[in-house]
Specification:
The protein is an alpha/beta fold. The chain is 39% helix and 21% strand. Helix 1 runs parallel beside helix 10.
Length: 269
């Protein structure tokens, strides 16, 4: 196939969480750009945390952030935005306080949490962003332009417990997906990386068959299934590996760069 749009997840794909992007992966992105391939990022990260990575890579096209809820260019132009309704943000906040679950709010691309604890510290360090501890009452006031809310737990079992509780309480009012064993991403129904890449493909007049995507986690799965061709990282969860056309080396072994050489340039020679 001819690849015209290449879409990559960040954490666990392009970079090991909390670490810098390797020179091999940066070179692979630049090689694609020089070949005329449109390269962009699709991540659960906030826009503010995605922008420095895009700038380091030299990517200058709309970025898919908040798991697809916000598509925004490096220059600040919003192509697509779907936020949680303010009243629903309050309901969710009440639910988390009542059940003593940790949650983060991303109002207007700013990071807020009820208290500065081990989860908040972990997130700041892994994403290289800073947030503000404001207490539960003020959390209920942060309802403007909330693209996503995020829970953090101690591990997969607890994350599933929170996800199940959310689905029972809110049903189809929200969409919940896991981006890591510790993270639940809460967005509006219909929001996904898959929906976002379709919007971008239309913008650039690219057929979905000419889109290649790469990722490792549950929240990448819709995007990987929607793309013309898909690549699973060596460190990907089993459901991703089973669903993708190709598999590459793990993130820590520069599997992203390996995938570009094998499946992008190997396929279009």
């Amino acid at each position: 196939m001819s690849v015209r749009l290449f879409v990559s997840d960040i954490d666990g794909t392009l970079t090991v969480s909390g670490q810098n992007i390797s020179e091999k992966n940066i070179a692979a992105v630049k090689k694609m750009a020089e070949a005329g391939i449109i390269v962009t990022l699709a991540t659960g990260r906030m826009y503010r945390a995605t922008l420095p990575i895009a700038e380091k890579l030299g990517v200058n096209v709309p970025l898919i952030t908040y798991n697809g809820a916000l598509i925004k260019s490096v220059d600040g132009e919003i192509l697509h935005e779907k936020c949680l309704p303010p009243e629903l943000v309050v309901e969710l906040t009440n639910f988390f306080e009542k059940n003593n679950f940790y949650v983060q709010n991303y109002s207007e691309d700013n990071l807020f949490f009820p208290e500065y604890n081990e989860f908040a510290k972990f997130y700041e360090q892994s994403q290289k962003v800073s947030g503000e501890a404001i207490g539960w009452e003020k959390m209920r006031e942060k309802t403007a332009h909330v693209c996503k809310m995020l829970t953090i737990s101690n591990g997969l079992e607890e994350t599933k417990k929170i996800s199940d509780a959310l689905k029972i309480e809110f049903g189809e009012k929200i969409s919940v997906t896991r981006s890591t064993p510790k993270f639940n991403e809460i967005v509006c129904p219909g929001v996904s990386k898959a929906a976002a890449i379709k919007i971008l493909a239309e913008k650039f007049f690219v057929n979905i068959s000419e889109v290649m995507a790469i990722g490792d986690s549950e929240n990448d799965l819709p995007m990987l299934l929607a793309a013309g061709k898909s690549i699973a990282m060596g460190n990907a969860i089993d459901s991703v590996k089973k669903s993708c056309d190709f598999q590459t080396a793990p993130c820590e072994d520069d599997g992203f760069a390996e995938a570009v050489e094998k499946f992008v340039f190997g396929a279009i020679k």
